[in-house]
From TrEMBL:
Record domain ABC transporter: where: 12-208
This protein's UniProt keywords: ATP-binding, Nucleotide-binding, Transport
Domain of life: Bacteria
Coiled coil region boundaries: none
Single GO term (MF): ATP binding
Protein name (record): ABC transporter domain-containing protein
Length: 211
């Protein structure tokens, strides 16, 4: 890993990590990983193996049963990590009564940046024709693109994208690949996806079955 310069270096470290949602079933057991520097990491494993669960732990919401998960050396559950970590979950969580543009403004405010960046990106993705629409009236792919833009607004140097390309049209997948590739020169980008676009250069494959 390690293309381009970034300071401090992005990193993801997992020590003796055990994750579960209940005491009956352990999803991931005693996982150890250390990834330092920028680049694109493809998280792979069969359905139900725990890719999204790992991302949930990286978001800081799912607390480990045992072990540690660190983003840039800081515990994933620490509010400090929010400044430089982004999580894009597989299923968009949008407010049905707010418009598409309201969501862009909200995500910009939450990350403390001008709304112009998110709006310009949304225009590139062809979302401007839906700006005034309530999100409950948007198509699946449109919701997915809005969610991706919202979740990657502002400055960050570690991002986890869970199935970002599912349901998204080819042209938009290419735009996403371009953006991800650009970010990866200074950021560590994790992608959990069963299909990776051909244009996306993967620096490392993280096969959870091998850890
Ligand atoms: N919120 C939850 N509560 C309880 N169990 C859950 C929850 N989310 C996931 N699981 C369980 O945890 C296990 C791992 O699921 P996870 O979604 O992490 O797998 P995945 O590798 O991302 O799968 P896929 O490739 O299908 O997206 C599965 O057995 C799943 O049923």
């Amino acid at each position: 890993m390690g293309r381009g310069e970034s300071s401090p270096l992005p990193s993801f470290e997992v020590n003796n990590l055990t994750l579960a949602y209940s005491s009956e079933y352990t999803v991931l057991k005693d996982l150890n990983l250390s990834i330092n520097g920028s680049g694109i990491v493809h998280i792979t494993a069969p359905n139900g193996y725990g890719k999204s669960t790992l991302i949930e732990a990286a978001s800081g919401y799912l607390h480990p049963i045992y072990g540690k998960i660190l983003i840039n050396g800081v515990d994933a559950s620490s509010p400090e990590t929010r400044k430089y970590r982004r999580i894009c979950r597989a299923t968009p969580a949008l407010h049905p009564n707010l418009s598409l543009v309201d969501h862009l403004v909200l995500s910009s405010q939450l990350t403390g940046v001008s709304k112009d960046e998110a709006i310009q990106r949304a225009i590139r993705f062809g979302l401007n024709i839906w700006f005034g629409k309530r999100t409950d009236a948007l198509s699946t792919g449109t919701r997915k693109k809005l969610w991706y833009i919202m979740c990657t607004t502002g400055k960050f140097n570690v991002a986890f994208l869970d199935e970002p390309f599912n349901g998204v049209d080819k042209e938009s997948v290419e735009l996403m690949s371009e953006e991800i590739c650009r970010w990866s020169s200074r950021s560590l980008i994790f992608i959990s996806s069963h299909v990776i676009p051909q244009s996306l250069h993967i620096d490392m494959t993280l096969d959870l079955t091998k850890y």
